[in-house]
């Protein structure tokens, strides 16, 4: 598949023009390095997920994007399935980030959120409301718990800070858009929320919204589940 893409691109454009096109649209190609300044393409989610194996590279991408994020101290618990080594304190310094209050996530989640803010959230806010989002309300990231809060079974991605639960948005005008209130119906708030949910599906491995089940009626769950094959994603 990749070889076919390369060969047909080179045959069609010629080598030099192919390389120029590749440099102009790195998001179209699986082999180009990720930059958080690029638009979102078909391979962006795989490149973000791969950052889990390269924490220094992930931190350098955030630094280059001037998000104002800072490394968080490692967190280790007596439960070995819980904790993280390479957490990121989101927007703790002056930077391009929206306001999140206090939030620590894994580095790939922080990187995916940065792209989502710029490429999905702000364009959708301009389109539907003609103004910017200034802050994100959330229910946090790290939580040492199993899926659905059960006593047995696999641990949630929250147990390693590889997930974040988004509860709603605050606009420049002071208006708020809580998911629990504004998801139902088909008003402009509801259309905005569906659009930003769908945009997250191009970046995160798993995206769950109120469409999924009652447990998600008041938030979006975004996660970067580790160990999934490239191309795997779930968007409900
Ligand atoms: Zn969650």
TrEMBL record:
<feature type="domain" description="Extensin-like C-terminal">
    <location>
        <begin position="57"/>
        <end position="236"/>
    </location>
</feature>
<protein>
    <recommendedName>
        <fullName>Extensin-like C-terminal domain-containing protein</fullName>
    </recommendedName>
</protein>
<dbReference type="Pfam" id="PF06904">
    <property type="entry name" value="Extensin-like_C"/>
</dbReference>
<dbReference type="InterPro" id="IPR009683">
    <property type="entry name" value="Extensin-like_C"/>
</dbReference>
């Amino acid at each position: 598949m990749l070889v076919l893409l390369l060969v047909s691109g080179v045959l069609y454009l010629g080598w030099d023009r192919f390389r120029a096109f590749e440099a102009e649209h790195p998001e179209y190609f699986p082999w180009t390095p990720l930059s958080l300044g690029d638009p979102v393409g078909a391979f962006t989610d795989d490149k973000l997920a791969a950052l889990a194996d390269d924490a220094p590279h992930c931190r350098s991408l955030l630094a280059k994007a001037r998000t104002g994020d800072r490394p968080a101290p490692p967190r280790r618990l007596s439960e070995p399935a819980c904790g993280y080594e390479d957490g990121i304190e989101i927007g703790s310094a002056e930077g391009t980030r929206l306001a999140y209050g206090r939030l620590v996530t894994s580095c790939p989640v922080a990187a995916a959120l940065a792209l989502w803010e710029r490429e999905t959230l702000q364009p959708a806010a301009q389109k539907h409301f003609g103004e910017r989002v200034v802050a994100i309300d959330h229910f946090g990231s790290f939580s040492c718990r199993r899926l659905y809060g059960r006593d047995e079974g696999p641990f949630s991605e929250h147990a390693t800070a590889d997930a974040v639960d988004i509860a709603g948005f605050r606009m420049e005008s002071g208006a708020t858009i809580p998911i629990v209130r504004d998801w139902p119906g088909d008003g402009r708030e509801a259309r905005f929320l569906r659009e930003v949910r769908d945009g997250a599906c191009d970046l995160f491995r798993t995206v769950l919204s109120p469409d999924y089940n009652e447990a998600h009626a008041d938030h979006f769950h975004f996660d970067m589940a580790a160990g999934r094959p490239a191309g795997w994603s779930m968007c409900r």
